[in-house]
Amino acid sequence: MDPEAFLDIANQVVKLKMFPYFDIAHCALCALSVREDLGSGAQAFSRKHPLACWLSYMLVVFAGGMVANGLLAEPILAPLKNTPQLLVATLVWYVVFYTPMDLGYKLVKFLPVKIIFSAMKEIYRCKKVYDGVTHAAKLYPNAYLIMVIVGTLKGNGAGFTRLVERLIRGVWTPTAMEFMQPSFYTKASLVASIIFILDKKTELISAPHALVYFGIVIFFVYFKLSSIILGIHDPFIPFENLMCALFFGGIWDSLAKIFGRGQLKEGETKDVKKTN
Q1: Transmembrane segments in this chain: where (predicted)?
Q2: Is residue 115 scored above 80 in pLDDT?
Q3: Cα 153–159–162 angle (5° rounding)?
């Protein structure tokens, strides 16, 4: 592809407006996530406890903004001030949970629709991460750790509020902590935040901002579609295993076990000789 044409496409992606189409895709997949988390009793729960269902869903939809605002000492409910966005989110929730014959749910679950919505949501995620890093950079220009934290939370806030979201629905799962088992989306948002910081604050990345942004969008979309179509859920795991082995005691633990077994065998040999 011609470099100028590629750069033009990248610029168009950067300028994409998220509302309403990308918001609809995001909300639809959030509703699908809540419904699948409820399991086989989702329909009965939504009929019996519509308020709890709606509140938990809204927390998933606006989790990134709420958590980030809480950490930045800004109004936690500020993400809910956009009334059109709130109405769209509520409408999508109603369609997924309450349409006759479950048509809304079946439509979102339909693979071609799910693939399109998933690609749109990853573009939405990239925008959220970038906005989070930019906002944190304005408040704390030299606090790179804060920029990374806010960008990561904006990208996958729902992962960090899963405990509260389930608690709203009356389910207590204390082991559902994103810090203990970070999902691919948290790791990807973390990496994207670091890249955006390097792009904004250093000279290490010489490429135009639009290309950097577009590259991260492609990264998000590619691995999301790979997880749906090919079942590749977390490409970071091999690198994590290598890092743990080299820097977090893995190799030393293995060596200790090997030498421990060797010493144990030597002790057993000596005991046999003494017996004889």
Answers
A1: 54-72, 84-101, 179-198, 210-230
A2: yes
A3: 125
